[in-house]
Design a protein that fits this description.
Blueprint (H helix, E strand, L loop, with lengths): L1 H18 L1 E3 H22 L5 H7 L2 H15 L3 H23 L9 H16 L6 H9 L5 H16 L1 H16 L12 H8 L6 E3 L8 H25 L1
Antiparallel strand pairs: 1-2
Helix pairs in contact: 2-3, 2-4, 2-11, 4-6, 4-8, 5-6, 5-11, 6-7, 6-8, 7-8, 8-9
Length: about 240
Amino acid sequence: MLECVETSLCIFEEERLVHRSYDLGRELLKWIAIITMTLDHIGAILYPEFEFLRWIGRLAFPLFAYLLILGMESTRNIRNYFVRLFIFALISQIPFFIAIDYAPFDLLNIFFSLSFGLLFITFFKKGSLLALVPLLASFIIPFDYGIYGLAMIGCMYILTKNTNFGVILLLLLNVLFLVPFNSQLLSIAVLPLIVFHKDGALNMTKPLIGNFKIPLWRKYFFYVYYPLHLTLLYIIKLYFF
C-alpha cells in the first residue's frame, strides 16, 4: 500500500514537472517588441528625419499589449503585476520626458498605459463596472496611446479567447481611430505573428524538468531596459548630436 502511494506521488510529481514549460515563441515576440520599440526611440530621439524607424516602431505596442495579456494569464498575483508596472511607470517618467523632449506631464510613458490596461482587463473579466474607470481616465490623463491603447489591450484579450473576433475588432479599431492615414495603421502588420503564436505556429513550448527557474534578470529585463535605454539615448543625443 505504501509503495503504491509513493508510486502515485512520483507520477504526480513527474506530471507536475512536465507541465511546467517555457514558451520560446512568447520570448521571441518579446524581443521583437523590444527591438522595434528601440528603433522607434532611436528615430524619435536621434534621427527624426528617418521616418522609417518610426514606422518600424509601430509594431511594438500591439506586441506589448498581447504580452500583457499573456502575463496576466500566467501570473500568480495580479496585484503584484500591477505594482511592478506602476512602479516602473513612475521610475521611467523622468527619462521618458527628458529623452523625448516633453514637459514632465505632457505625456505619460507606456508603463502607465500597460498598468491601467491591466486594471481595465482585470475588472472587465470580473464583469465589474470599475472597468470603465481606466477607460474614462484615458480621456483625462495623457497616457501614451490614450483610449486607443486601452482599447487595443481589450482587443488583444478578446483575441486570446476568440482569434477571428479579436482580429476583426483590432482591424475595426485601427480603421475607426487611424483612417484616413496614421502611421500607427502599420501596427496591424504584426497581427499574423500574434495569431501564429496564439494558434500554435509560434507557440514553441519547451518543457522544464526539475527545479529549473527562469533567471531573475530575464524576468525584469524589460522593466529595467525601458528607462535605461531612454537614458542612454538621451546621453548620446546630448554629447554626440
